[in-house]
C-alpha cells in the first residue's frame, strides 16, 4: 500500500495532475508501471496514448488546460491552439545551475495546452538511466566558464569545417542563450551536432549553412549549437530525447527548470523542408511573441511612467520642502531681527537710563560740591582795610563780584566761581590782563595779599582747551 501511495505521489509530481482518482485510474490501467504510465502522458504519438474512458480524457484535458491557465501560460483569452506539436522539457539541474540565472517565473511568451500535460521530470531525463523506482544518479555541474568555453569551441570547429556562413550560434551556454531569446522576444533555434554521423556533413553544407536558411534563422531566431561530444550538448541531447541526427529543435523558455519544445527535426532535411517547418512554427508563435513584446513594452512604459511620476512627485516634494525651508528661514530671520531689535532697544533704554542716572548723580554731586564750596567761603565780609574787592568777568560777558578778606587764598576765588554754577568746575583758569598773570594750581594756596590782588582785583576767566 505504501509503494502504491509513493508511486501515486511521484506520478502526480511528474505529470502535474492533481486529481488523485484520475492518476490512480491511469496507473491502474498500466499495472502500476510508473514509467509506462508516465510515457502515456508524455508521449506525443497516437499509439502511445492509453485508451481511457471518454470522461477521463476530457477531465485530463481540462485539468491540464486549467493548470496552464493558472500558471500564466495562456497568452490571450480566446486564442485557439496553434497546432504545434510541443511538450515541456525539464532541464537537468547541471544545465540550469551552470547558468548565470535560473529561468524563473512565467516568461510571458505564453504556451497553449494541446491534449494533456506533456512534461519530463528531472529523474526521467537525466544523463543516466533511471531505475524502476524513479531514482537517478547525480551528474557533475557544468560551470559557466565550461559552458561558454564549449560553445565557443563548437563555433570555432564548425567554422573550420563548414565556413563562416552559418546561423549565428551564440558563444555562450544554453541557459544564457535561452535568456537571450527571452529578452529579444524570439524563439531559440537549437542544433545538436553529431560529428560522427554520416548525414552531418551533407546536412550542414547543403541545408544548415545554405544562404536562405542562414538568413532566415539569423533574422527570426536566437541560435545555439552544441556538439554531443561536449558535456552540455550531450545533456541537451538527452533532455530533448534526440534519437536521430542531424537534430534541430525550436524551444522557448517556460517556468522553473523547464523549456517548451515547439518543434523538433530529426534526420536530414532539405533547406525547403526545414524552412517550411521553421516558418510554420514562427507563424503560429507570432501572436504570442507579439503579445509578449507588447506586454513588455507596456510594462516598461508603466515603469517609466511611474519613474516619471515619482520623479515629478519628488521634485514637487523637494520644491515644497525648499519653500517650507525658505519660509522657516525667513520667519527665523524676522524673529531673530525682531529679537535683536528688541535687545538693542532694551540696551539703548538701559544706556539712556544709566546715562540719566549717572547725569543725575553727577548733577547731585556737583550741587553738593557747590554747596560745600559755598559753605567754605563763609559770609561775605564788610568793607574794610583788610577786605579785597574782587571782580571776575565770565566768558559770556557776565561779571561776578565779591569781597574777600585779604588773607583768603586764590582757591577761595575758584570756590566762588564754582559755587555760582556758571562754569564747569575745573574747566577754566583765572588770569589778569595787565600784567598777564595766570593763577593756576601752583598758586591756589597763596593769599590775595601775597599775589598782589589787594585791595582790589579784576580777573577774567580763561577756558581750558
TrEMBL record:
InterPro entries: FAF1_2-like_UAS, Thioredoxin-like_sf, UAS, Ubiquitin-like_domsf, UBX_dom, UBX_domain-protein. Residues 318-357 are annotated as: Disordered. Pfam families: FAF1, UBA_4, UBX. It comes from the Eukaryota. This is UBX domain-containing protein. Residues 383-461 form the UBX domain. Keywords: Coiled coil, Ubl conjugation pathway. GO terms for molecular function: ubiquitin binding. GO terms for biological process: ERAD pathway. Residues 320-357 have a biased composition (Basic and acidic residues). GO terms for cellular component: endoplasmic reticulum. PROSITE patterns: UBX. The keyword Coiled coil applies. The lineage of its organism: Eukaryota, Viridiplantae, Streptophyta, Embryophyta, Tracheophyta. SUPFAM superfamilies: Thioredoxin-like, Ubiquitin-like.
